[in-house]
């Protein structure tokens, strides 16, 4: 394989058999369970990277079922997303993500900079309760519950919010000597969003300490609201918002 062929074919690793295909990445019937809670504002300031600033003392703990996703298959993920401000504009910063499928772990980290780690999240309905669970190995890390579809919310407002809200990631790719080759704040948007339904209900969230999945370091002080969303969407590719090395 000559140098020109390598340049033409290079997209992701491994070169001759990448772990994920080229996009676009379309998700059908993507199901979200999002619990918004208050936490210690000092703890938030410790984990939100400048130039982003925490918008408040709120954190979103998310469980997401993806039964039909282009190139990535059928999987579930969970994690923490923090409402932030950049130049006075409201957005979301993804702080931690845990999922059970290798292609979206590789693709999420290499393309966008999603902070993805391998774990075992689940989202399912038990009788009258929507239940989210996150285990890291054999250890329980998070348990969330919500009354199933107690209150219908405005789907069009949810759709506008998902389309118009910028999302931020801290992408870090190491050099061969172990230093940072890439260290960037990445901005991306959700595109072609269709919200099929959104509901709320009474909710509870419990986080448990773990050395390698430290979601409990942003402790739950008060549950503010919960949302259950079903939507189709395309995950847009990113843009570099800020280069920490330049």
UniProtKB/TrEMBL annotation:
<dbReference type="Pfam" id="PF06314">
    <property type="entry name" value="ADC"/>
</dbReference>
<protein>
    <submittedName>
        <fullName>Acetoacetate decarboxylase</fullName>
    </submittedName>
</protein>
<dbReference type="InterPro" id="IPR010451">
    <property type="entry name" value="Acetoacetate_decarboxylase"/>
</dbReference>
<dbReference type="InterPro" id="IPR023375">
    <property type="entry name" value="ADC_dom_sf"/>
</dbReference>
């Amino acid at each position: 394989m000559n140098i020109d062929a390598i340049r033409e074919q290079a997209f992701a690793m491994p070169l001759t058999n990448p772990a994920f295909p080229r996009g676009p990445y379309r998700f059908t019937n993507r199901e979200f369970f999002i619990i918004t809670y208050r936490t210690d504002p000092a703890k938030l300031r410790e984990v939100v990277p400048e130039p982003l600033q925490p918008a408040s003392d709120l954190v979103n703990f998310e469980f997401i079922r993806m039964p039909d996703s282009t190139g990535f298959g059928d999987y579930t993920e969970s994690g923490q997303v923090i409402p932030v401000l950049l130049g006075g504009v409201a957005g979301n910063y993804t702080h931690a993500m845990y999922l059970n499928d290798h292609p979206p772990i590789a693709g999420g980290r290499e393309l966008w900079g999603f902070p993805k780690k391998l774990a075992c999240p689940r989202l399912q309905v038990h009788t009258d309760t929507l239940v989210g669970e996150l285990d890291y190995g054999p250890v329980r890390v998070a348990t969330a519950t919500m009354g199933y579809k107690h209150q219908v919310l405005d789907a069009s407002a949810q759709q506008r919010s998902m389309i118009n809200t910028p999302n931020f990631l801290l992408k870090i790719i190491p050099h061969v000597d172990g230093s940072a080759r890439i260290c960037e704040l990445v901005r991306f948007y959700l595109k072609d969003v269709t919200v099929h339904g959104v509901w709320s209900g009474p909710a509870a969230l419990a986080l448990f300490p773990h050395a390698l999945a430290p979601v409990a370091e942003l402790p739950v002080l008060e549950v503010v609201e919960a949302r259950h969303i079903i939507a189709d969407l395309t995950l847009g590719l990113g843009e570099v918002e800020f280069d920490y090395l330049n």
